[in-house]
């Protein structure tokens, strides 16, 4: 994935991305659950690095399990810089998948962001770590209280959406969306055009224009937009 | 609805309004779902203007549908100034019913506020539009991803409450309530009295008074309150 | 409960407390529902004082019921200073168990905090009362709209957790946990040690250390930690 | 409660009972959750005997707890003949509150029926015990897996409805309703009349009559009904 | 809609219909909620006749409302023979939209079936009426306890699916699906072919054939199927 | 796993198995969701063979995907005889994971049973296939309508429980439980003893014995039980 495409996408809202994907028939791209822990931050983008949990079982989900070869600790050490980590916590709301220390380590490893349909713990410490987080809230108990970690970089579900390793994730104040890797170029190009068009519509609305015929545009509006569009070049 | 009554109601909390409606046997007046997008704003009031959605169907809920005569765009152009728009989105959490452009147009049309049991999209743009919004959150996808718009100014449900056109809506930090139009005068008058009484109780509590006998008042407290009440005239 | 133990616990996060309780086989200690009304406040601790509601029934849950001997008003007057009040509202989201006046009175009685799996009303007034609150949101209607108060200092459930009078409650930004009273000393002692250990790990991570072998520690890390630990004495 | 009133009520459907209670302003009388384990049985009636559970906590909810003075076993020995036991299991679906042995003992004690918003275990054994049961399903684990028993004959909630000891419970194929004890005579008398009226309407419908003007009746239908009604005496 | 197409569709399972609609990109056609009240009956088909409810409000949803011009009674008298009535009850589980009398009248009017995401009341009487029903369960209280009826033959949602008057409904043991009216011919033709193909596959499986290459078919299987297919003509 | 142990377990109810596992501290063993499609059948046992789904994505979950190497078809051909297949469908209620043909093929392959927290389709055909099924209901649409199949014999969650390949599954009228493979011998031995003890208790209850002191037993009851127990040898 070349960084130029990422630079384009960084200026395209997740709202617009989901509309571009709808043009390709894809309705299930927005994860229902993850919200920005700190709203108002910048839009982030990166290839997906997935984590998978199954429910806890008392003989498996113990503090001792944290030392096993398949552990969240090992997964973190396998994360390349620049990825957005997406964790399938099955929407479990009573077990924080990560706390301050693991977030701090991910930050050290240049992880771009953590996205999960589950919750985190140690709110103060997570904020202090500086790692951007999209999650479904906070809970005091550790992941072992409700979850068993079983692997990384497998296909997962997160917030009702399928995520495959190497899909691209974009997250902003409206939440997080996945772009199937084959559609990244299309979405970047079409999305950038769409943002330009919407910025023109917004200006028209500010001037007092009515919406029917403007958004979506009729032939006359299309012509006026094209005129404005060419004036930019 | 004369504006004097609205001016009185603007000083009555939604909490007090719901208690006044309970005196008339009405328990279902508070919409469970809509929350202020920006807490701490002023209390707003207006006649209800309703919007109705049904679920999406792939042959109906397309971007093309936005140009149809029955569309959210046409509905917006039909909104009189001063109304509070109430949108029945059936609590769908994965499709933003409106984004920045539609909110900006509603603001231009002097809509007082938008209330919905659904979600919006383009959080940054919606905030920039200045339109006061009570909703159940944010999602990136457009309404067509989960919803089909079918009409305006019909009876609807919103957050478990029935809303009819011309009912009166009041919204503040505790959410949004509906006042059936025949009860507006009653609620305004009784509500204002109740607020006065509660302000006196609050002062008494600040002085260290116990609650039993005071709130609700026994005969002695009623007499003391009446004395204070008359001293205001 | 001596205050020295409370002073120790005040420095132990609810995240750490839940991990210490897991060592004793207790997984159900964190209440799923109550969140801080104002995040970022200090951690609070106190013995539990419980309130119990059942569902509303129209012949019982009336404003008149507020004057009965078994009422929230009487319960408040029975609250000793320093307690954390835990109210079982069965997660009902449409009826505010308390508003500004009751919170103001609790504050006057030196109640440390109010924790509930239900909601409050009069958000502005509750904030003004200064009483620290952990709850599941806000609703305009009064408790009688959905709930009947039936007693205090009985065993209750709150957010999926059993609370008995005299259990100890700790609440911070990650929510609220209960410590069974027989385990308070254990949790305070082990928790304080664990916080110290985590602070050392955090420093190591800041220096760039990897997690496997460090968190949880292998023998070498344990030795290094003990060395650092002794250097503090 | 004299048995004559019970004999009348045994012929009144829970559907009709809920309509009679609505005339008195009571909407919350039908328990949402309990369903007949064996549909098609006869309608049952009895005074309520309540059981109360709170969530499990690992230090409390153990097999050992079954020997404690406050236990389901002791509660069963305190049940008078003829009661309908109503158990508040908070809708927990993963822990069977009773199995074959406890149901068999309740049957021996002439308990009329068991109603709960929770689930049972040992389906085959429960059926074999012959105790009529209204519940929300079946689960293999015992109550201690999710619940702690805390007392009997206290006010409880069950399926969103408040139940007080000595209220009257009626259960049939539509589920279970509570009649507040002060309204039992009213409901029996009005309900029997209503059943008679509905039987006449049903006959009219069978003959091909239209519903408007018949159900509810206009003046002409009222007169025709009265004529038929008097012909019965 | 000619009856020949209906006769073809009557032999196509709802499972196959949903697969045919998926070929046209339609995923939202099966109503999540309605189940057959009596499993094992025959498959039914008819044009949709819709009913719409909003939530109850105590000033609106009263027994008196049953006499109003816009009432379920009037709606029933407007139903043509052969329709399948689809009622949007918003999934409300505590208020039975219809009981024995209304079902008996619908049966008299030659209504083919009633489908709803809500519940019915008077289970015994509804069964006795003979009207085929797909619903989400049973409750004793009347519709006014939770619902207000607002109109018929409007677009509605039912079980997460949009239903428009004149769409075609098919219901069997797997539940109920809607076929948009423009797709009825396509679905009937393709569906009948698909049923034939599946019957051949089933026979092959009975003979011991493996699934890969057979279902879906590779070239060889397609050829063998065509041979068998032609042998039928 | 020798078949003798299986023969013992076949006589131990899932209720008793969950109680035996609780003795080992395991509370999460019963899957919340799967119910017998046909109640009243015999208890079944077998090693787990797992199937894993993630949510549908329109570019992945298509009828074409059924021909891919990683498909439910390939998974079925990999199933050894005697296994109990456990499918993680994430509780999705609107997409039937299997229909008549796939069930018929599994039956041909001597699969003992299918257990899932999702739903099936083609109810009539599935019943006709003879494959014993525990599921959460029925839906007409195919799995691709809501699910993407991603692999077999991986760790999964099902109904809130972790299942690993080679764990042992037991299913009866109370649902399905997992026995971690290391605990199978323990559960079989202790469970058989427990069933014997419960059969004695049941006889005592039939004779009119009270529960306290009997169940669980005090010293005197233990002695009487041992006497009876030895009389069997």
Globally, the shape of chain A reads elongated
The Cα radius of gyration of chain A reads 20 Å
**Mean pLDDT over the residues of chain A:** 95
Biggest interface and residues each: A-B, 33 and 32 residues
Give the helix proportion of chain A (percent range): 25-40%
Spans of chain A of at least 5 consecutive residues whose pLDDT stays below 50 are none
Q: Give the quaternary arrangement of the chains.
A: homohexamer
Computed structural class of chain A:
alpha/beta
Instruction: Calculate the terminal CA-CA distance of chain A, rounded to whole Å.
Output: 27 Å
Count of helix runs of chain A: 7
Number of strands of chain A: 10
Secondary-structure element string of chain A? HHEEHEHEHEEEEEEHH
The biggest beta sheet of chain A reads: 8 strands, mixed
Fraction of residues in β-strands of chain A: 15-25%
In short:
With 233 residues, the first copy, chain A, is of the alpha/beta class. The first copy, chain A, has helices at residues 3-9, 14-23, 72-77, 100-108, 123-129, 184-206, 219-232; strands spanning 35-36, 44-55, 84-88, 113-116, 133-135, 147-152, 156-158, 161-163, 168-172, 175-179.
What does this structure look like?
Six copies of one chain form a homohexamer. The first copy, chain A, is of the alpha/beta class and 233 residues long. Helix content of chain A is 33%, strand content 21%. In chain A, strands 1, 2, 3, 4, 5, 6, 9 and 10 form an eight-stranded mixed sheet that branches. In chain A, strand 2, helix 3 and strand 3 form a beta-alpha-beta unit. In chain A, helix 1 packs parallel to helix 6, helix 2 (14-23) packs across helix 6 and helix 4 packs parallel to helix 5. The model of chain A has no long low-confidence stretch (mean pLDDT 95). Chains in contact: A-B, A-C, A-F, B-C, B-E, C-D, D-E, D-F, E-F. Chain A binds chain B through residues 13-15, 17-19, 22-23, 27, 29-30, 32, 35, 39-40, 160, 172-175, 177, 198, 201-202, 205-206, 208, 210-212, 215-216, 218, and chain B through 63-64, 66-67, 71, 73-74, 76-77, 93-94, 96, 99-102, 104-105, 108, 121-125, 137-142, 144-145.
């Amino acid at each position: 994935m070349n960084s130029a495409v990422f630079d384009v996408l960084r200026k395209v809202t997740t709202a617009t991305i989901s509309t571009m994907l709808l043009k390709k028939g894809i309705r299930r791209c927005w994860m229902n659950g993850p919200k920005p822990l700190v709203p108002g931050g910048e839009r982030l983008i990166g290839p997906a690095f997935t984590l998978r949990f199954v429910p806890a079982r008392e003989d498996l989900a113990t503090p001792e399990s944290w030392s096993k070869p398949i552990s969240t600790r090992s997964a973190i050490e396998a994360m390349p810089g620049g990825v957005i980590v997406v964790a399938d916590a099955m929407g479990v709301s009573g077990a924080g998948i990560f706390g301050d220390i693991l977030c701090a380590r991910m930050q050290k490893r240049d992880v771009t962001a953590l996205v999960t349909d589950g919750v985190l713990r140690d709110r103060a410490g997570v904020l202090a770590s500086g790692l951007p987080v999209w999650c479904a809230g906070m809970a005091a108990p550790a992941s072992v209280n409700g979850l068993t970690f079983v692997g990384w970089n497998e296909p997962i579900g997160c917030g009702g959406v399928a995520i495959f390793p190497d899909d691209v994730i974009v997250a902003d104040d409206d939440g997080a969306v996945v772009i199937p890797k084959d559609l990244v170029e299309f979405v970047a190009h079409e999305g950038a055009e769409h943002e330009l068009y919407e910025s023109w519509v917004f200006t028209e609305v500010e001037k007092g224009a009515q919406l029917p015929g403007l958004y979506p545009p009729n032939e006359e509006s299309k012509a006026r937009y094209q005129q404005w569009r060419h004036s930019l070049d």
